[in-house]
Amino acid sequence: MNSQQIQSKAPAQASSRAEVEKQKTTNKGDGTMEKIMTWVDELPGAASTDFPAKRDEIAKMMDEAAELTRKADELRGRAYFAACSLEGEARGVFTFEQVEQAKQRAG
Q: Are 90 and 99 in contact (CB under 8 A)?
């Protein structure tokens, strides 16, 4: 095998954040997650190492992070709605000018 063949079989180094993101778990749209870092399985003798297990733990962390992000987005939306509701309630008790002045004083 010549050096050109070896280079073509070597896994590509991630040279940008976008490429790194592609190596991570991605949602396939049906709620299931694709396997990440599949190149680990292509390493000679990988099955006899702890690399696949470590990769699977990384995938679990990434899945958990994605779920926490989804929950944070949902909570942020609920908080925004609650804030708008509170402002609307305040505008029902105080004049428009009072609410606006209070907002300006608060910064």
A: yes
Structural domains of the chain, count: 1
pLDDT digits (tens, 9 = 90+) for 98-107: 999 999 999 9
Can you tell me which residue has the tokens 């105080």? Answer: 94
What three-state secondary structure class fits 33? strand
- Tokens 């029902």 correspond to what residue? 92
Distance CA 60, CA 5 (A): 34
CA-CA distance, 17 to 25, in Å (whole number)? Answer: 14
Q: Does the global pTM surpass 0.90? A: no
Cα 1 to chain center, whole Å?
40
- pLDDT of 85-97, one tens digit each? 999 999 999 999 9
Q: Name the residue range of residue 55's domain.
A: 3-106
Distance between terminal CA atoms of the chain?
A: 69
